[in-house]
Predict the structure.
Amino acid sequence: MSSTGTITRFAPSPTGELHLGNARTALFNWLLARRDGGRFLLRIEDTDAERSKPEFTKQLMADLTWLGLGWDGEVIAQSQRGAVYREALDKLERAGRVYPCYCTPLEIEVSRKSQLASGRPPRYAGTCRNLNDTQRAAKLAEGRKPTLRFRSTEAGRVEFVDLVHGEQRFECADIGDFIVQRADGSAAFFFSNVLDDALSGVTTVLRGEDHLSNTPRQLLIAMALELRAPTYGHLSLITAADGSPLSKRHGAKSLRDLREQGYLPKALVNHLFRLGHSSDLHDLLDLQALAAGFNPAHLVRSPARFDPVQLEVWQRQAVHALSPAEALEWMRPQLPASLDAASASAFAAVLHQNLLLPTDAAFWVQVVFGELPAHDAEGTALIAAAGPAFFGAAAAAIRTHGTDWKAVTAAIREQTGRKGPELFKPLRQALTARRDGPELAPLIALMTPARAIARLERLSS
Ligand code: GLU
Ligand code: ZN
C-alpha cells in the first residue's frame, strides 16, 4: 500500500506556542510521509494578521526541528499568497459559484438566534443569494462591505471517507452558503486551506477533530475549482485523565516548557505515537522505526487520554538510552561551572540513569561536590543501628584500599560481619544521605576517597 506519492503537511496558525496536541498532529503527518518515502510540507497559516506573530513561527520551526520533524522544500506562508487566493476567488465569481453578501455580523447574529429559538440549526438564511444589480448597488451605497459566500445549497450532499471516522455524509442544505472571502478582502480559512493543499499536491491531511465539520465545505470548494482535495483523517482530541479537554491546569505544557524542563524529544515522540494510535510496538523507538510502525488504520476514534506518568516512563527510558556524551550535554546546565571536563563526564555517566530531569542532578551535585545533605528520620535510625564501629571499619577499609571497591567491601565484611543490604544500606546512607541512587564505587571515586572517609569518620565515635 506504500506510495512514494504521499504528500502530507503540517499547517499551524502561528498564534501561540505548540503544545502536545499540535505536536502529535505534526508527528503523525511526518511519520506517514516518511513511511511512504513521500514528502512532508510545512505551511504557516498566518492570515490572521492580528493574532499571528513571527516569533511564534520561529518558535514552532525550532520546536519541530528539536523533535526531529524536518520538512521538505520551502515553507509556505499564507500571508504571502493573497494573489493566489484572489485569482481562485475570481474564478469562482466568474463561474457564478460565489456571490456578495452584505449582511452585517449583527444581522447574521440576529438571524442565528431566531433560528435557534425556533429549534432550527442556524445557517445563513440566503438573504443576499438572489439580489439583482440594483439591489446590490443600493447595499453598497449604504456603505456595507460585502463578504463572498459560496453557493453550496445547490450541490445536494457531500460524501467522503474519513481515515479515522469512516463514511461521512453532509447535506448541503444543512451547510448553508458559507463565507469564502471576508469583508476585508482576505480569504477565509476554509478556502485558503484547501486551495493550498490542492496546489501543493497534498494527498493526505491528518488534523484535529475540530476540523471535521469544515471538511464538506472544503470539498465543495475543491470541486468547484476542479482541484483534487486531499484525503482527510481527523484525529481524536487529547484529553486530561478525567476526560476534560487538556489544559494548563492539568499540567499541559508547551513544547518549549517541556524542552526547557529537560524532556527528551525521543520520550515525547514515543509518547505521542501511542496517543490515539494503537500499536503493538512497546519499545522506545527512534523516528525511523516509529515511521515504519505508523498506520493510519490504527488511529483511534475515542479521545486519547494524556497521562503525565506515562510520559515520565518514556522519559526514563529515553534518558537511560543516552550515550555518556549526550547525558553530559543534557545535564550540563546543572553541573558546577568549575568542574573539570573529566569529572563532569564521569559524573554524568554515573548519574544519568538515575534521573528523570536534569534538575534532579542538583541533589547529587550537592552530595558529590558539596556538603552532605541532612539525613531523614529513617536514615538517622539506620545510622544509629549500624553503630560507630561499623563506620570506623568502613573508613579504615577505604583508607587502606582506596577505590578498589571489591577490597573495600570485603574488608568491611570481615571487620563487621555485615554483608549484602546490611552492609550497603548504612554505608550508602552515610555517604549520600540516601538509601537509593547510582552505584557507590564510582560515586566515591568522584567525591574522592578522602571526603568519603571524612563522612564515615564523623559517625565512628
Ligand atoms: N491552521 C489550522 C489549524 O492550526 C490548520 C488546520 C488543518 O490542518 O487543516 O488548526
Ligand atoms: Zn447576506
The first strand starts at residue 7 and ends at 10.
